[in-house]
Every structure is written in structure tokens, then in C-alpha cells.
Design goal:
The complex is a heterodimer of chains A (272) and B (67). Chain A is an alpha/beta fold. Helix content of chain A is 37%, strand content 15%. In chain A, the strands form three sheets. Chain A has a five-stranded parallel beta sheet. A three-stranded parallel beta sheet of chain A has the order 6-7-8. Chain B has 67 residues and is mainly beta. Chain B has a five-stranded mixed beta sheet with strand order 2-1-5-3-4, with no helix packed on it. In chain B, a hairpin with a 2-residue loop joins strand 3 and strand 4. The chains are: A alpha/beta (272), B mainly beta (67). At the A-B interface, strand 4, helix 2 and helix 3 of A face strand 3 and strand 5 of B. Strand 4 of chain A pairs antiparallel with strand 5 of chain B.
């Protein structure tokens, strides 16, 4: 589908749990050297859904008043997606989610239950347990999960509103290590698939969308880039390009060449 | 002893959560703040009336960059 002037067709909006977002790029707030840069990066990314963590209040720190993280995010007009980062058990994750609901007045939770401190890979049984409990309590649960299609299906069976499979470990920048599994997850579930973790640069985000993901979540690849604001813009373009390429339909991969120019009408020249 | 975010709070049993929050400089209408006492969420509406027992563990949490 293309328009007469060659402009890209308006992409369908992303809908999660009945809420619609114009942007398919979710932004993590971790790792930004300053709130000013975070604010500029949000604007450059076009993101409408931004994650925050909950930690002990530091009396010396800036509270939710002027210039605080909450104020910066409110001013940016984004929706908050609290996470349960740092939780290693279902119990801790559930309690953290309840506190996040109280602090941010949202039922949405990016559920992370970590099983290993070196790889920060999810703990599947604890993740499922926490998801079940939170869904029973009325939360809209977006679980950070491995790239296992069976686990993704189990999470959706419990009622998760989306799944967020990793491309590779958090902050590793190694991109999508098992693209076939990501494509299988897309086929296995009927909720939005948000590629989370491992994105290193714009081409990784484009690949996620080409594989059929509905959105991409990026944190470190933007916040720790040499120029976070420029990278935020690059990710925004990459997500759009990947979505367009996906809907345009790529050519199949072949081992041998297929001429793009017809042989018919080729002149015959004399011997050299 | 009533603990606050892992440290001794200096608050005596019988005081309310509002007193603890005041020490942290947290107004009762603070946005982006949540409180747990002994691993249970205490809703904002109860901060003023929630009386702390002698060995209460108070956690006061707020938004931080992450994810």
C-alpha cells in the first residue's frame, strides 16, 4: 500500500490492553547521565510509554517536586510504565508492583523477575507465579521474558497483556541472538510482542520490527550512546523503517543470484 | 526499634507514618511516593492515621531512573 506522492502510509497504532499508542518505541529511563538529556531523548524518540523503577527515597535527593524524575516525565506527556527491576522472587515483584500502583496510580507493570545476577535472565517459574498473582489483583502485566515461545504462550495464557522477550541480555548490546524464536513468539501469541533488552543499535530495532514485533523497548542503547538524543532519533526511524519493511514484504533469501536486469535484448559483441 | 529504609528511624512506637514521612521531608500529597510497613502497602489515605508498632519496618520508595 503506497500513496501517490510516495509518502509512507500512516502506520497502524499500537494497542496494548485497550490503550493506543502512536509510537512503537518504548523508552527505558535507566542510564541517562542527566534528566535534561532524558527529557531531550524522550522528545527525539517520540516514545509515549516510558519505564521507571522504584527505589528507597533518598532524603538528600530531589523528591517528586520541581525538577524531579516524575516531573520531567509528566512534563514530557508520557505514560509511566513502572517496572519491578531488581526483584529475584515472585513475592518481591508482587509487592513492588503493588507499591508502584500506589506511587504512580497505574495498574500497568513491566514485570521483571530475575534469576541470575550475571546475565539478568528471567526466572521462568517465579515470573509465571508473579504474573498469575498480579493478574488476579487486576494489574495489566507486561512480562520481561526469555525468547522461549512456550514460556511466552504460558504467560499469555495467564492473562498477560503483552510479552516482552529479550533479544539478548539486558545492557549487552548484542542485538537479537535468536531471530527465529522471536518470529515464533510472534506466531505463538495473540497479544503485542515488544522486543526488550539487548538492542545495541538502530539496525537491531529495525530487525525486531521486521521479525514481526509490535514494538521495541530500548534503554541502554540510547541512554549510554555517545549522543543519546541522536540515537533516540535513530531508533525512532529504525522502528518505523522496520515496520514499513515488514508490511512491504521482503524478497526471499536465495543462495544464488537472480538477475535484476533481463537478458532479453542483450547485444552480441565480436571476439575480444 | 522502628526502621526506616533499613536504618534506625529515631521514631518512637505510637507515632504515625506521617511523622516518619515528615522527617524525610515527604508531604502527605507527595507524588510518586509509596510506603510499605512490614511488607504491606499502606495507602496514601492512611499515612496520617497509621500508628507504628515498636518493631515496624518502614520502606518509603519513590521513582528512580530504570528499565
Amino acid at each position: 500500500m503506497s500513496t501517490r506522492n510516495g509518502a509512507a502510509p500512516a502506520a497502524e497504532a499500537l494497542t496494548i490492553a485497550g490503550r493506543t499508542f502512536g509510537s512503537r518505541l518504548l523508552l527505558g529511563t535507566g542510564g541517562f547521565p542527566s534528566l535534561e538529556l532524558l527529557s531531550e531523548a524522550i522528545a527525539a524518540s517520540g516514545s509515549e510509554l516510558v519505564t521507571v523503577a522504584l527505589r528507597r527515597l533518598d532524603p538528600a535527593g530531589r523528591l517528586a517536586g520541581r525538577g524531579s524524575l516524575v516531573e520531567v516525565l509528566t512534563d514530557a506527556g508520557v505514560e509511566l510504565l513502572p517496572n519491578t527491576a531488581g526483584c529475584y522472587t515472585a513475592r518481591d515483584a508482587v509487592l513492588t508492583a503493588r507499591l508502584a500502583r500506589e506511587a504512580f496510580e497505574t495498574d500497568w507493570i513491566k514485570l521483571e523477575v530475575i534469576g541470575d545476577e550475571d546475565t539478568l535472565l528471567p526466572d521462568a517459574p517465579e515470573l509465571l507465579r508473579a504474573a498469575e498473582e498480579l493478574i488476579d489483583e487486576g494489574f495489566v502485566v507486561l512480562p520481561y521474558t526469555t525468547d522461549d515461545p512456550v514460556l511466552a504462550r504460558r504467560l499469555v495464557d495467564t492473562g498477560c497483556a503483552a510479552v516482552m522477550p529479550l533479544g539478548s541480555p539486558i545492557g549487552s548490546g548484542m542485538g537479537i541472538r535468536n531471530p527465529y524464536n522471536i518470529a515464533l513468539i510472534r506466531e505463538a501469541v495473540d497479544v503485542p510482542v515488544v522486543l526488550d533488552a539487548g538492542i545495541g543499535t538502530a539496525s537491531d530495532a529495525a530487525l525486531a520490527m521486521e521479525l514481526g514485533c509490535d514494538a521495541v523497548m530500548v534503554a541502554s542503547a540510547i541512554s549510554r550512546a555517545q549522543d543519546p538524543v541522536a540515537m533516540a532519533g535513530a531508533m525512532r526511524s529504525a522502528v518505523q523503517a522496520g515496520l514499513l519493511a515488514r508490511s512491504a514484504g521482503r524478497i526471499p533469501r536465495r543462495l544464488y543470484a537472480t538477475p535484476s536486469t533481463a537478458d532479453h535484448g542483450l547485444p552480441e559483441f565480436g571476439p575480444a | 526499634m522502628i526502621s526506616l529504609n533499613g536504618h534506625e528511624s529515631g521514631v518512637s512506637a505510637g507515632e504515625t507514618l506521617a511523622v516518619v514521612l515528615d522527617r524525610l521531608g515527604v508531604p502527605l500529597d507527595a507524588r510518586g511516593v509509596a510506603v510499605a510497613v512490614d511488607d504491606e502497602v499502606v495507602p496514601r489515605a492512611m499515612w496520617d492515621s497509621f500508628v507504628l508498632s515498636d518493631d515496624a519496618r518502614v520502606e518509603v520508595l519513590t521513582a528512580m531512573q530504570g528499565g
